Write the structure tokens for this entry.
Amino acid sequence: MPGLVVFNRRWSIGSDDLPVPAMILVFLNSVWVIALVSMVIEVHMTDGWRGDCSGGFLWYPIMTIGLLALLTVNDVFIAVQSAKGGVFDKKARHNIPVLLYIRTALLVVETIWACSGCVLLNWKLRTSQCDSSDLVYTLLCVVVGSNMVVIFFTLLTLYMSFDSAGRTFTKFQNLQQNSADNSTSSEPTLRFVV
């Protein structure tokens, strides 16, 4: 299995190693989407988001549902695309780097969103609009905390699959290809007459 080349460097994983982690993220994101949708419906049915604590919280779970839906769709595409072809068949998985670039952008958005959730929860608690035992506040703390845990494990996985020699490898590979192209096109052919 050849190493995956993303961000102009070779990584210590191959493009065929991604279905299992992607499906784990699909499962986790799907569970959180279902939990958030049920939370929004339950809170909307009971007090209609009119309480002191839940007043400004309606937009946060709805936007989180949208972000988790985007992450889930992207992870499904990663899992399906990386499951194609054989071990050494890189052409069947040629879209994986693009999907990983999209996943990285979504990871940045997810991190910013989780941090904004921490700020929002802290602000609501400090302005005494929420009691820390309020159901909406507790559920949103769990959502933000779980997002932080998923982000941490995603970053840990990236760190573990980082290949420190990856950039040197891609430079060497490019140099070899350039020298091979130059040697075949620019060298004149010598003919000896006997």
In short: Strands lie at 3-6, 9-14.
